[in-house]
Amino acid sequence: MAISTKGQAQGAAGPGGSGGPGGQGGPSGPGGPGGRSAAIAGLDSLELAQQQGGSRSARIARKALRAAWPKLLAIAIVLVAWQLFYAINFHGDTASGLVQAPWPTLRDLGHQLEHGQLWQAIGDTARTAIMGYLLALVIGTVIGAVVSRIPPLRAAVGSIISGLQTMPSIAWFPFAIILFGSSVSAILFVMVLGAAPSIANGLITGVDYTPPLLLRAGRTMGLRGMTLYRYLILPASLPAYMAGMKQGWAFSWRSLMAGELLVNIIGQTSLGQLLNANQDTQDLSGAISIMIVILIIGIVVDAIFSKADLAVRRRRGLLDTAATA
Amino acid sequence: MNLTQRRGAPPPPASLNGTHLADAAGETDVDAAIRLADVSKVYGRGPGAVLAVDRLSLSVRSGEFACLIGASGCGKSTLLNMVASLDSPTSGLVETRGQRVSIMFQEPALFPWLTARKNVELAMRARDVPKQQRRQRADELLATVHLSEFGGKRPHELSGGMRQRVALARALALDSDILLMDEPFGALDAMTRDLLHDELERICAERSLTVLFVTHNVREAARLGDRVVVLSSRPGRVIEEYPVPRSGPRRIDSVQVAELASEITDRLREEMSRHGN
Q: What is the ipTM of this complex?
């Protein structure tokens, strides 16, 4: 079996073969250290060149246009449908003055924003929304963090969490009102019940799906216990955690609206209460105005969550570049 | 142990200090950096248990570059995990004399939320290196792997070869004496791989690292190793060792590497056909 090794030693050694380890004494040229680093630099730039293209401002403009037109089209469709509904005079509602055309209604909304209680109502609702959501965020995060670290708890609490998520939040209101009375606490309670499970679930999922390879890498780097958690597991679970936060927001916003319609709090003006008042006075335009405000708040907050989510995924290269370029 | 090979190593050139000379007297070597003695690893219990590694003995001398090669199922990754203390042997002894061990995988396993530089820095964080020093060391290590300009890039913005170089820089940041490599270049194209072979050889020699390098690629093993260790499959044990006298840089396309590679390939085929019957 012993064939060529001797020959190899002699062949490769040559006069310079006794140079230092790693062969600094070896031949230069394309194989030498200098040519090598140049070759590496060239290869690097060749590989990266494919990932660029187009000027930055042109790309942004194209992207803005592409993002804007579906939204503009959606608004146009709604306005046209509304105008048609008005023009058809369904059920005689237009003739009786119950249904108004889009433009007068929007003017009415503008008027309310200038004078009425609308801003105060938006403020009140926003305050409850933020309070309830933050509460849910803290509770959901604590539960998620604890449960993901303790396996036996994970199985049990996992089922409770999925159970809670299937329960429509509005069904909690009688319970909450009996327990807390007609107060903001009742609304906050239901908001937390709606949002916290999603947030906890997101975090647990993220921890569960931390790539095992990264865990191995982290352990060989000496990350243990809390440092492993802080520098590896938590950042690795961020995308799933954020998805949970986004879903949690959607649940808490729905719970809040249901709560404001159901729970009549004295001394507070909220969007839900304005909507209730419009129902009582048969003011369809007023109700539509409030609904538009609710819709816009929902869309804006959702867009913020989506943006954050997208930013995280882009930073990690989790986006298909062809789809987003 | 099946040490059939003791082929004529030429007299050691003085400047090598013997550190890079293949001398297959592994298991009795007192200055072994890695010593595995009668190591077995069983996964599972009862009738379903799988013997992944069977009474394997192997020593890697300090500063030696040892390549492990074998067909699938030879327990190569299990072996590396045990040396890295990520797994413990069912029986037998794994010794690294308290030296620091770092490991590189086929995947770069970089943290995608950190830039290349921060990835390298994080490796030093667990060892409480001061922040200022971390940054400086990370820049030095990135320069070592020719990535000075790319410290601010995130892993997904880099090519496969560049990512693997960041992973190498990160492994070096641990200041370990032993570097374990689990098919680190397996996913790269041949041209990039050749360049990285040269780089790895230079870096390991500069730092006199002890390397245990697992690969499927026979030529790669013949190109890089001071010694090529062939493992059997299922269970894994050492069936053959090929010392490779080192005297200056080798090229993967050289006749010597090709001849050794075909010799090893023949031996591997023989081993594989044993399983076919």
A: 0.75
